Amino acid sequence: MRRLLGILVLLKYCICGDVVNFDSDIKDFVVGNGKLFVLTDHRLHQMSHDLSEEKRKIITNATEYRVNILVPFDANNTLITCGTFNDGYCEVLDINDITNSIYYESNILIGPRQDEKYVAFIAGTGSSRYLLVGKKDDDTKAQDARYSVVTLWNTLQSQYGGIFSKIAEGSDASIQSTVRDVEFVGGFQRVSPSESYLFLNAKTGSERKVLVLWMNSSKGKKRDIIKSLQAATIRCCSDKARPVLVACTVIPSVNSVIWAGVFSAQNQQDPENSALALYDIRSIQGRVKGFCAYGENPCGSESDTELQPLSVVFKHSSMSAVAAVRSGSWIVLFIGTSDGQLIKICFIFYFSLLMLDEKFTPGCPTVLFRSDDKRAVLPRMHFDPVDFKYIYIALRKRDVWFHSHPYDRSGLFRLLLNVQNSAVDCVDYFSYKSDPEFTEFITSKVANDLQVNIQKKADMLNLSMSEVTVTGLQGDRQYLCVLEKIESNAVICKIKGAFPAVDSLTITVGNYVLGMSGTKYLFCLSPQDITGRE
């Protein structure tokens, strides 16, 4: 039997800093301008950006009372939450004190009824800001020919129809589709000019497509925003069809809108199953068949507008998440994979041209972290929206395995606790020492070898060299680091032979595995860093 616990990790300049463990899975988390909000099975946690908990709100009866919308409304100093309790509800909380409920409305279902993907964010400007929600229509009937897939909901009581109303002037403020099977993957609101983008998978029969929907959210009325709808089909790639969007992010910029998408061919046995491609989405013009404003006839155009990638910058068997940050002309992409890796790549973006090396590939593909048990360690990543120096990552952690012999109905049974590589009897009292805490490592040349000094917090574990394995990583290459000494606060090993440096380490102590990165900067600052040289 196994329990899965949620972990939230804060990374700054690519050094693993603060880590917070939660007592149940992380269902969702969002980052506002001054706060971080984490949703678990039974609680909503309000945290500062350094992961210090400030407030918590208990969610009772988590089976029914499932929160499925979590959106910071920073301009209004509120946090909007919605869920499925009874026939649905929405609540407005004080963004600085989530225990303070400002408004509550029942019998309203804004988020998905089922546990499905959705997109939600604040769209619009000034007093005309709305909650935009993209989701699969859960309430359709077999005879329905159209489905509501995007809706604008009021966020203020002063707006036409009152708070949490979807009524616009004369009709519902929604985008309809003749396609029943849709899956929303991502979306964002551009500030200047005010534009809303939504990215989704659409499936009709055996045909799959990736679509982008665009709206001019600077218009004051919801109906006018919906009527401004433009759309296009996104294609990837020239070597093979990858018709499913897995993850996406926008690359921060003032004058351009460069979007990165992870596309999949749905064949993880293929080493190039997924591809990360970049697109210029500044000008989305046209329509796609089957998507239109509420009541519009016919629904969408017959001929699709298609977007082709500017560049395919990375391929992998199973990319699952992506986040991007920009500094000047440098772009850094962080990629999570379903086999447990965190990879960094970077390249130059200059005057709207991607400057790649002579092989037309990005520089410095660096594995920052690798998990031995091949878990999907990075299903979601968010940057701090204030200065983009921090990245928040939700992980899942295996806590404790416990095994018992078959119960013989004698009234007693034996329970064993698996600790490191040993199984011990669970008796009235037993001594347990926590896992070692490694903090950082440094390398130095010693004759023809590379010596690695790993610092750790002092403990009483008395580790032997037979219990510890250290592997140095550079790109996709692995090098055994031969142990020479273990002290209470350090582990010293050597990689034999002429070798310049390592990017990261994997340290194994029994069943405990830790990845440590030696990268010290979030941004790629020099050609030497791009090639992985120090």
Report on this model:
This protein has 534 residues and is mainly β. It has a domain at 438-530: Immunoglobulin-like (Sandwich). The chain is 2% helix and 53% strand. The strands form 8 sheets. A 7-stranded antiparallel beta sheet has the order 34-35-38-37-36-39-40, with no helix packed on it. Strands 1, 2, 30, 31, 32 and 33 form a 6-stranded antiparallel beta sheet that branches. A 5-stranded antiparallel beta sheet has the order 11-12-13-14-22. A hairpin with a 2-residue loop joins strand 11 and strand 12 (128-135). The protein starts with a strand and ends with a helix. Mean pLDDT is 77; it is low at 1-5, 12-17, 356-361, 397-415, 418-422, 427-431 and 519-534.
